[in-house]
Amino acid sequence: MKERRRIVVKVGTSTLTYDTGKINLKRLEQLVRVLADLMNMGLEVILVSSGAIGVGVGKLGLTEKPSDTRQKQALAAIGQASLMSIYEKYFKEYGYNTGQVLLTKFVLEDEQRYVSAKNAFETMIEYRVIPIVNENDVISTYEIEFGDNDTLSAYVANLVDADLLVILSDIDGFYDGNPNEKGSKLIPVIEEITEDIRRCAGGVGTRRGTGGMQTKLHAAELVLPNGIDMIIANGDAPDKLYEIVEGKSVGTLFVSKAI
Ligand code: GLU
Description:
Layout: E1 6-11, H1 13-16, H2 25-40, E2 44-49, H3 52-60, H4 69-93, E3 98-103, H5 105-109, H6 111-126, E4 130-135, H7 141-146, H8 149-159, E5 164-169, E6 189-190, H9 195-200, H10 213-223, E7 229-234, H11 240-245, E8 252-254
Helix pairs in contact: 3-4, 8-10
Residues 12-13, 50-54, 76, 134-135, 137, 148-149 line the site of glutamic acid.
């Protein structure tokens, strides 16, 4: 097994918030404690966190997440600051500082900006600060409509040349069918993304809802050619990250090509 030293962890809104839209403080605190502990072990941690819009919804006491882009962008702005302040408070308790990085795909596709972002990440990592990344939803209409933090986390893993990308989701891993249907089985290791695997993610020819697996598969396709392994695991128990760094089997491991 490759050494898992530089790790990008992506966490989604459903892991971080309750159905009420309010932050799941217990979960968030557990996650921060484990990430800080991994830093104590000498690892390098980069966190990609969704939840800005979700937290904005909870903050304003709205009953549901609006579908209108204009409102979503405002809610992202309203929620992002609160999300960061909670992360900052918890990480500080465990002795770490954080740095906020808001990115868009377009930024990373521009060479000069790519280099700036890379330098900022590297410098924060040298300072032993934890970069916390989200999409810059306020200015990126395209991303807010079609974008997702699974893809963003893959871009970030490539940017920082990570050893491992961990996507914490609200299901246990990648299944051979709809995870909500009886009889579907979790696939522990995926060595190659075949047409069969693509079909399992709910690609062409199936109408199964598979809990956002298509974007996760896309993330895998972005990182694997660069020698970065990817794991999909359930975010309900952040302690599993310990097992992941020890190389134990958790969720689904997508094995990268040796480069
Ligand atoms: N960037 C969005 C947010 O922070 C979420 C996007 C996603 O969940 O993939 O609310």
